Amino acid sequence: MHGREGPARDDLVLTPDQQTTTDAQATHDAQPLRGTLVQLNVSKGGMPKLPILFARVSVEGVAGDWQKNRTYHGGPKRAVCLFSEELYGWLRAEHGIDLTNGAVGENFTTRGIDLMSLNQGDRLRVGECLIERTAVRAPCRNLNKWDGRLLSIIQGRSGWVAKVVEEGMVRPGDSIEVTQRGEMRV
């Protein structure tokens, strides 16, 4: 008999691996889930992308935007590219590389949402559209035109690409909200 506490429950004790997974999940779930679209950018191909006042975002990407090399850029799973003002600030402060929004070729320049914490499958409402993060963008060799060190410095944080789940209009000042968390990486 186990007394008032009830039966022994060895299954309530977490192994170190389970605890790490639980801690990672808590961190994943606790990241800032809101931000702002501070700049919307397009180009006829290449970098920099330049600011526009508004655009419709479809499964093909941001209206008015084009990529010269469609093998590596654009397409349904890479319709939108995101980069943050915080990462531009990091490049300035830590590496002395002073770039303006749109310079690395992103469509959405964000503020206040931790893009580094996003995982594959996370869904974000941006204005009227809903996007789903699909991958970290592989850095393009053309980034070195800004600084010969840039390609290696931003490896793993060169931008995030997303597919469009719901089409709609977006404009600078629109809120960004994570509406659904995808798979967590441990």
Structure report:
The chain has helices at residues 16-30, 85-95, 150-153; strands at 34-42, 50-52, 55-58, 61-62, 80-84, 108-111, 123-126, 129-136, 160-166, 168-170, 175-180. It is α+β, with helices and mostly antiparallel strands and 186 residues long. It has one domain (31-180): Beta Barrel (M1 Pyruvate Kinase, Domain 3), CATH 2.40.33. The strands form two sheets. The protein has a seven-stranded mixed beta barrel. The protein is globular. The model is unreliable at 1-28 (pLDDT under 50).
Poorly predicted regions: 1-28
Gyration radius over CA: 20 Å
Would you list the SSEs in sequence order as H and E? HEEEEEHEEEHEEE
Mean pLDDT: 83
| CATH topology annotation | M1 Pyruvate Kinase, Domain 3
Helicity, as a percent range = 10-25%
CATH architecture: Beta Barrel
Overall number of domains: 1
| CATH C-level category | Mainly Beta
Q: What does the overall shape look like?
A: globular
Strands of the widest sheet, in order across it, are 1-6-5-9-8-7-11
